[in-house]
Design goal:
Layout: H1 4-10, E1 16-17, E2 45-49, E3 55-57, H2 59-63, E4 68-75, E5 80-91, H3 92-99, E6 107-112, E7 117-121, H4 122-125, E8 131-136, E9 139-140, E10 150-152, E11 165-171
Parallel strand pairs: 1-5, 2-11
Antiparallel strand pairs: 2-3, 4-5, 5-8, 6-7, 6-11, 8-9, 8-10
Length: about 200
């Protein structure tokens, strides 16, 4: 278990450590009144936009992608962090390679089964710790935390790690997603305390 002094050194500004993501609760205010409850057999992920080879992955095809394990800290814009979360899934860059992204594509747009949306620059998605995750801490990803599949982008606030992932669209220009169209920053850098639009 981590020591408090060690955790403080790892925390971005104005964050506090909690022991588990579910300790904060499973409220998703303003996004959906009913959380998606998808069976793995019904889940699909489409990958399109500025690509040479569009993809539609069912569960078997997704699990046939190279799988990895990535341990990282998880920072919520609401002020809490959970350390040493062990995610398992496919590295995002694997999809970039399989879909053959066109050279002028600089951003990815994410649609989720609850209607949530967000976007990210491709340069933020190519790190080895960015995972399309289906397991957390040795167990299948719980439905309240985005199961069966969510994106995990550890270096940014968690609203850039969309849950219940449904579709990825690569594009030349950026778009503002659900929270970025409202109150939160589009860059979402925890180490700069970059929470809100300026």
């Amino acid at each position: 278990m981590f020591k408090l002094a060690e955790s403080k050194e790892r925390l971005p500004p104005n964050q506090k450590v909690i022991s588990a993501i579910l300790d904060w609760g499973v409220q998703h205010p303003g996004i959906t009144k009913k959380l998606p409850n998808l069976k793995k057999s019904d889940w699909r992920l489409t990958v399109g936009g500025d690509v040479e080879s569009p993809l539609e992955l069912d569960w078997e095809a997704f699990m046939n992608l190279p799988q990895t394990e990535s341990v990282s800290d998880f920072h919520c814009v609401e002020g809490w962090s959970v350390l040493d979360q062990r995610w398992e899934g496919a590295v995002f860059s694997t999809l970039v390679e399989k879909a053959c992204i066109k050279g002028d594509a600089k951003y990815a747009w994410f649609d989720c089964y609850d209607g949530y949306t967000t976007s990210l620059p491709l340069e933020k998605l190519m790190d080895s710790d960015v995972v399309i995750a289906h397991r957390l801490n040795g167990e299948s990803l719980p439905q309240p935390l985005g199961g069966p599949v969510r994106l995990v982008v550890p270096k940014l606030y968690a609203y850039k790690s969309p849950m219940w992932l449904k579709a990825i669209t690569f594009m030349k220009g950026d778009r503002l997603g659900y929270w970025e169209s409202g109150i939160y920053s589009n860059t979402a850098d925890p180490w700069r305390d970059d929470r809100y639009k300026h």
